[in-house]
Amino acid sequence: MKIFLDTANRDEIRQAAEMGVLDGVTTNPTLAAKEKKPFRQQILEICEIVKGGAISAEVVSTDYDGMLREGREVTSWHPSVVVKLPTTPTGVRACHTLSREGIRVNMTLVFSASQALLVAKAGAYFASPFLGRLDDISHDGMALLRDILTIYKNYNFSTEVLAASLRHPLHVVEAAKAGAHIATMPFKVFEQLFKHPLTDRGLEAFLKDWEKARESLGDIVEAIPQSGTRKTGS
């Protein structure tokens, strides 16, 4: 499963990219507004950080011609850009037109299997079901994800399922178990994927044991640079 960050913050994106596990970024008008920089500049900076990744840039027009104009514009900025459109009748129509032009489209705000079916037929590159927001209103987001994956498999749709609105690590794990192609998440959730109390406790015990053993290990320990030190030539 590919891992995307749902953010426009370059520091967060850079930290994740340096770990070698980041495959792309999803942005939206709300996230972009927080950064207080021109949108084009934000997207280009993100593309440079996540080289070769898929970077979703969302249009803000709600009419067909406006969506086409913005979609064509943002994809001209960089080859990594994927146009993000809302799953409305107008958005689906714009998706159909742009996809026929060879432009990759991420259809966002998918909340039902019927919507997912329509965006796939319209040629969407990504379909983004919002799982956490469904959970918020007592609907089973993971059940929707599984339904979409079944439908796409039944009809060999090439559209990739991008599990969005993931609120915690269990969401990520369940999405992976269901077979989602991509999971996008806030940086906070990404950080939580690394955390386990037994890992921290185990590392602490190993380091304590190492310190206790230094005298008895003698020359072997002396040959290993300690944390914060560096051997220099004579």
Descriptive labels:
234 residues; TIM Barrel; single chain; alpha/beta
Beta-strand residue percentage: 15-25%
Helix and strand content put the structural class at alpha/beta
Number of strands: 8
Low-pLDDT ranges:
230-234
Q: What is the fourth-level CATH superfamily?
A: Aldolase class I
Protein model, in words:
By secondary structure, this protein is of the alpha/beta class. The protein has a single domain (2-192), classed as Aldolase class I (TIM Barrel, Alpha-Beta Barrel), CATH 3.20.20. The protein contains twelve helices and eight strands. It has an eight-stranded parallel beta barrel with strand order 1-2-3-4-5-6-7-8, surrounded by six helices. Strand 7 (160-163), helix 9 and strand 8 (182-185) form a beta-alpha-beta unit.
Question: What is this structure, in a nutshell?
Answer:
With 234 residues, this protein is an alpha/beta fold. 52% of the residues lie in helices and 16% in strands.
Task: Note the topology.
Elements: E1 2-6, H1 10-18, E2 24-26, H2 29-35, H3 39-49, E3 54-58, H4 64-75, E4 81-86, H5 89-100, E5 105-110, H6 113-121, E6 126-129, H7 131-136, H8 141-154, E7 160-163, H9 169-178, E8 182-185, H10 187-192, H11 197-217, H12 219-222
Parallel strand pairs: 1-2, 1-8, 2-3, 3-4, 4-5, 5-6, 6-7, 7-8
